[in-house]
Amino acid sequence: MKILAVDTATGSCSAAVAVDGELLAEITLSRDETHSKHLVGLIQHVSQVAGVTLDEIDGFAVTRGPGSFTGLRIGISTVKGLAAASGRPLVGISSLASLAQQGRAGEHPICSMIDARRGEVYVARYRHKNCGLSPEDNEQALAPDLALRSIQGTCVFVGNGAVVYRQVIMDHMGKRAHFAPAAQHIIRAATVAQLAWQRFDAGDTDDLERFVPTYLRKSDAELNRQKNMLKSNRS
What we know:
Blueprint: E1 2-7, E2 12-19, E3 22-30, H1 39-50, E4 59-65, H2 69-86, E5 90-94, H3 95-103, E6 110-117, E7 120-129, E8 132-135, E9 140-142, H4 144-148, E10 155-158, H5 160-164, H6 166-173, E11 177-179, H7 189-201, H8 220-234
Parallel strand pairs: 1-4, 4-5, 6-10, 10-11
Antiparallel strand pairs: 1-2, 2-3, 6-7, 7-8, 7-9
């Protein structure tokens, strides 16, 4: 099965083509630019490098979040459009689960963290189980110190949130804090494709019409609208 996978959940932008979970080609950009500027060209280029046309893709995968509101909308709308036009199935993959897959080393629990801005991180913990990773708690948006309170024992941290709040983690955890290699803090579309293949193989796909991003909290625009409404009601 040929899978086209895309990630736009954070500041990086990644696209990959894989066959039955085995990578054919991957391109990842890490630039402070909107993903709409690069994503379509990235998909076309990675397909050419892989020697696969979009008509030959059997299934599509995309990170569903949590992450950047704008980034998720761009990635998901693009991939949903490709899936709808081709009639091929779609699978959404957690951005935190993708990071956990990249950060796994040894048997220590893994804590995925994505910088959510406003002094918070999107966070979830994973534990090794049956040769894979199993979520230990729900995905949440929390202040970093709150996210660390329930962690007992040694833990591996991965994601740009772990990079931004590295000192906070070290101050709280001390020698119990381990960090994934630098290259693993960026979500790779190859990892998204690998996790998606497991779901495709099990016949577990998403409903294209109902598939929406996982945000975990309201956007800054929504919060600003609420604040303005409250001000208007008070005046």
